[in-house]
Specification:
With 261 residues, the chain is an alpha/beta fold. It has helices spanning 17-27, 44-51, 64-74, 109-118, 133-139, 150-158, 197-209, 216-223, 246-259; strands at residues 13-14, 34-38, 56-60, 79-81, 98-103, 124-132, 159-167, 172-173, 180-187. It is elongated, with a radius of gyration of 20 Å. 33% of the residues are buried.
C-alpha cells in the first residue's frame, strides 16, 4: 500500500525506475562515499543507494511516520535523522565530506541550496538534486537573462552545474502540477574567497529585491557614505542586477568587506 503523501510537506514520491537509475548513474557512488540523502520519502531511491554499498548512508526525513517505516525496512543499513533539513545544525557537517542526493521539497528547495552554498562547514564530493524545472532554470541561468537570480549567483560561486535530466509529473506519486529537473553540482577546485559568506547573501538579496531598478540604488543602500568605484569593477551604475555576472558580484563583496573593515 502506497504511503499517503502530506501536502503540508510538499511530498511527491519519485517512483520512476528510469529516473532513479539516471540519478544513481550520475552519482557514481563508491565504497568510500558518505551519502546524505534528503527527503527519502518511501525509500525508492534509498534502496538503490544501499545497493551501491557506500561507506555510510545518512538520511534526513522530517516525516516521523515515514522515518520510522524506513528504519524498520532498512534496519542498520542507514542512519535516519528525524529532523527538518533547515534545522540541521552546522556542526552536523563538520569534518565530513558528503555525496548528497535528494528530491528536495519544492517549497523550500532554494532555501536548502542557499544554506548549503553559504555553509563553510559543508564539504561535498558531489550533489545530485531534483528541483522544480523553473528553479533549475534559474540555477543554470546565464547573465543578462530573465531567469538570472540570487540562486544563480550563490550556487555558481562554488559549483560547476549541469543538467542530468528533465522529469515528467507522471514519474511521481501523486503527480505534481509542475515538471522537474535533476541537476549535478560538482565543487569548483578553486573558489573565490570572501571573508563572510553571509555578505554574499546580503548583497545579492539587496540587489535582487530591486531587480527592476538600476544598480546604483542597491549600491547606495549597501555602501551609503562609502565611495564605491564603478570603474574599478568595470560596472555601469545604470545596469540592472541581471546584467552583473557572478564574478562581479563576488568582487562587490570584496569591496564591501574591504571598505567596512
Amino acid at each position: 500500500m502506497l504511503e499517503k503523501p502530506k501536502k503540508s510537506l510538499g511530498q511527491n514520491f519519485l517512483h520512476d525506475k528510469n529516473i532513479i537509475n539516471k540519478i544513481i548513474h550520475a552519482s557514481k557512488i563508491n565504497s568510500n562515499d558518505e551519502i546524505l540523502e534528503v527527503g527519502p520519502g518511501t525509500g525508492n531511491l534509498t534502496k538503490y543507494i544501499i545497493s551501491q554499498k557506500p561507506k555510510k548512508i545518512d538520511v534526513i526525513e522530517k516525516d516521523e511516520n515515514l522515518a520510522n517505516k524506513l528504519e524498520k525496512q532498512y534496519l542498520n543499513k542507514i542512519n535516519i535523522i528525524k529532523k527538518d533539513i533547515l534545522k540541521i545544525p552546522n556542526k552536523f557537517y563538520f569534518k565530513k565530506k558528503f555525496l548528497i542526493l535528494g528530491n528536495l521539497p519544492y517549497n523550500i528547495s532554494t532555501r536548502i541550496l542557499s544554506n548549503w552554498c553559504l555553509n563553510d562547514k559543508l564539504k561535498v564530493s558531489k550533489m545530485i538534486l531534483m528541483f522544480q524545472r523553473e528553479v533549475a532554470e534559474r540555477i543554470l541561468a546565464e547573465v543578462n537573462s530573465r531567469e538570472y537570480s540570487r540562486i544563480t549567483i550563490l550556487s555558481n560561486w562554488k559549483f560547476h552545474i549541469k543538467k542530468i535530466t528533465d522529469v515528467k509529473p507522471n514519474s511521481f506519486f501523486p503527480k505534481p502540477k509542475v515538471h522537474s529537473t535533476v541537476l549535478e553540482f560538482v565543487p569548483k577546485k578553486k573558489i573565490y574567497e570572501i571573508k563572510n559568506p553571509k555578505n554574499l547573501e546580503k548583497i545579492t538579496r539587496v540587489f535582487f529585491n530591486q531587480r527592476r531598478k538600476m544598480i546604483k540604488k542597491p549600491i547606495n543602500i549597501l555602501f551609503k557614505n562609502l565611495k564605491f568605484n564603478y570603474k574599478k569593477l568595470n560596472m555601469n551604475p545604470y545596469d540592472r542586477p541581471q546584467n552583473i555576472d557572478v564574478n562581479k558580484y563576488l568582487k562587490i563583496v570584496t569591496e564591501y568587506e574591504s571598505l567596512r573593515s
